Amino acid sequence: MVSVEKGWVNFAPAAERNQAPILSELQKVLGGAETIIEVGSGSGQHALYFCKAMHELRWIPTEIDELLPVLTTNLKSYVDVAGYPPRLLDLRDPVWHKCFSLVDAIYSANTLHIVSWSEVISLFEGSGKLLEAGGKLILYGPFRYDGRYTSDSNAEFDRWLKRRCEESGIRDFEKVNELAEKAGLKLLADIEMPANNQLLVWKTG
Predict the structure, then answer these.
(1) Which residues form a coiled coil (predicted)?
(2) Which among 109, 160, 168, 183 has the fewest CB atoms less than 10 Å away?
(3) Separation of alpha carbons 5 and 129, rounded Å
């Protein structure tokens, strides 16, 4: 599998490390899906990697206005091949979902612990309205369970996040799952991933 060049703007080593394990799981849960929105595509590494591996999918990368130019520049070669340029998606806009047609899946990696809690709520509320019947919301990242971290390193990471921005932080699985249920999503899978991360999959209906 071809990886992106490290000369890309905002190249993320973590995305380079986790893309293969995530791809392995996505290939299992995305059967039959056609159109996918990626929320918070960052440098675009996952978008490019997954598109090369699952070329039958219409993968739509997105970012907030401030980061969209970098994402667009990084993914020029991807756009030439797939024809799906990055689009604006800002969870601070409570009606962000109205800018898109219904999709089969929504994916986001390492986003929930960065954005504010109000944006987490916005992600779930919008996803519940944007997903087709049987559509899936797929989230990757660290979570707490029963108020406990899954590792000491995650606890230290959470402290660092909160020093950086008090609205950030590793989210409690139970609270996140409650948001999913309110949005009409049922938990389909909770998959342990390398480096103390999880891949959570919810399904509509």
Answers:
(1) none
(2) 160
(3) 36
